[in-house]
Amino acid sequence: MASKFTRSNGTGWLMAGPAVALIAAFVIFPFFFAIALSFTNQRLISPNPTEFTGFANYSQLLGVSALTLDPVRDDTGAVVLKDGAVEYPALRAFTRKNPDYPHLDGMREWFAFDTPFGGDARTFVLARDVVFMKAIVNTFLFVLVVAPVQAGLALCLALLINQRLRGINVFRAIYFMPVVVSIVVVSLLWRLIYDGSSGLLNSLLGALSFGLIPPIDWLGDPSTALGAIIAMSIWQAVGFHMVIWLSGLQTISPTLYEAAAIEGASKWQVFRFITWPGLRNTAVLILIVITMQAFGLFAQIDVMTSGGPLDSTQTIVFQAIDRGYGKQDISGASAISVILFVIVLSISLIQRWLTREKT
Amino acid sequence: MKFSKLVASAAILAWASAANATETLSMWYHGAGNEVESKIINQIIADFNAAQTDWKVELQSFPQAAYNDSVVAGALAGNLPDILDVDGPNMPNWAWAGYMQPLKIDEAKIANFLPGTKGIWNGQLYSIGLWDAAIALTTRQSTLDELGLRKPTADAPWTKDEFMAALDAAKASGKFEYALDLGTAWTGEWYPYAFSPLMQSFGGDIVDRSTYKTAEGALNGEAAQAFGAWWQGLFTGGYAQATQDGADRDSGFASGKYAFSWNGNWAALGALEAHPDTVFLPAPDLGNGPKIGAASWQFGVSATSKHPEGAAAFIEFALQDKYLADFSNGIGLIPATPTAAAMVDNYKEGGPLADFVTYSSKFGMVRPVTPGYVVQAKVFEKALADIAQGADVAATLDAAVDEINADIEKNQGYGH
Q1: Residue among A60, A95, A327 minimizing CB distance to B375
Q2: At B325, which CATH number?
Q3: Complex ipTM, two decimals?
Q4: Same-domain check for residues A107 and A150
Q5: Cα–Cα distance between A107 and A125 in angstroms, integer?
Q6: If residue A354 lies in a helix (H) or strand (E), which one and from where to where?
Q7: Residues B344, B329: contact at Cβ < 8 Å?
Q8: Coil, helix or strand for B270?
Q9: Residue B143's Cα: distance from chain center in Å?
Q10: Which of A47, A92, A322 is opposite residue B97, by nearest beta carbon?
Q11: B383 close to A (CB below 8 A)
Q12: Which CA distances in Å does B174 have to B146, B177, B179, B257?
């Protein structure tokens, strides 16, 4: 197939050359290298030779199993209660060198629920790598909240500053400012804001409620830590997406708005039938960009919580770096990266399909 | 023809010996940003360069937080210096990975060094430290008097019951926000350094040191489970904070927030300044004798060094008592020898920090001497943080054991 690329096009290739070489060296090559490493036992530093291990890294990361247990009963057959809750046999007895349950060896409880129609029985879902499972759940939770909220908030801000008012540029600058500041610096500042005893947020809440709201250790409490990071992340990047929305808004022809004004359309009708259809392509772009960025959540975690407390803020990328560099396990980290790649790719394809031009 | 050849070879010889006259040795150090520390190390290098003509040491300093990464990156790129300094527990990993070579210095010169300062792996000396660090239970004499507590000594430390009674008394007095400041704000190496000795005092350990091939039974055995329950009790019982503000760690004891502070000799002078009646009590005996962590930063020779004898000569030169005393005076570290300690006002017999020397030599215990320690330390830290936050003790320790064992297996036993 003789295309423009293969025909004598020396100058073109010469101009593209540096960029192509750099992208090949730092994006394409590492990408395939990571896929290859994920099937080995490669270490960061080790005198031992690298060996091919097949899918061992993947089964170690993704292994999940379920176990249904009946409660402990005393001699009369009554259920034993411990601290007011039904007691179940210790999982330890099943997951540690129990010859009857070899497939459960080394697994840990991920979560448990009462078996449907099972009386008092309870089903325990076990995972080979509970931390990674929690990282996947947290990352999805983060994406599911951040993508719509950040996009929506950015659109509201864009509509607000898309007016001809005196000094509107000041507001534009203020909303955009957090984007310019390094995420590491922003994270450090917010760690102070979220501080459990003397943080700005606690002081503010205390003052507003006249001391009724006790200080909350936002980042030290498993139930609030991820929410705190979500809120801060939305605030930090909302300005960037605001600017993209704004550029979309300004491509909509003013004549359409004039026509609408003549027709006597209400503000809502103008938004619904002129602004929103005009922003279609922008919306697709913003959703895909936010989703991809949100899946890469790392810096905030590294600076603010290191995945704690109790794994409530573990994320996929944080785990990849923690294992690859901290625990010197390059092959495991490569496997995590490949899993993340597959997740992001499939979600992007689904988004593309959902937002396709319907004919 | 013959003559010109002779001249040529003579010229080459002369050139070679002139080049031999002073070989440059490169050296990496972790203390960038600390002015006093830099001044001392530069002084040693200047003295060494002036004292002989064979070698010339050139220093490159790194910030401590980036130092280990720089060494790993330098090793991967085949670009290590001749002399490097290494944190004691990391040394076996670097030796095993082939970054370091055995250190050939005169054994007699280090005979009287504190045990924690000698980095020995596979029966060979790889690194040697000019100082050590130690931890004490820091409190005030007035606090002990008010609470009616016996002052423990190195020969008669508090038992576990006495220690818990002391915490109870401090808590009941209502004068302190928390009875005990463990320093949970200091994430990272602080956890295994400061808290694994408490576990060893119970009889547990991070890994089974008889083989170094498994953590089963050591990190999840009965003693370790008892430690885990006790550790969790410190937080659920309201004696200490599972998450601590960094500022509280730095100034909480001085401002009277805590009755007792589990802290190192580097913080001792500040504590004395805040409260002149500060006393440094020995670690409690939790069943298996008092234990504290040993081994700090040490010097060694990289495996790729072309002049190991020069590097060793420099390290041997640095081991003089006067330099040990300089470091101690400058940044408050415990001198590695008793003779150097006698030259330092703080650490000499009867000095305000002399207790630390006793604790270091009596209770000091090095962290597991294995290349796997780098990973084991991280697993241990996470397990302790999780237990402090309320995770199930047995399940958490089991998971930590599994992770450590899987890592040992992946590394084919780390050469043990």
Answers
A1: A327
A2: 3.40.190.10
A3: 0.84
A4: no
A5: 10
A6: helix A330-354
A7: yes
A8: helix
A9: 29
A10: A47
A11: no
A12: 12, 8, 9, 11
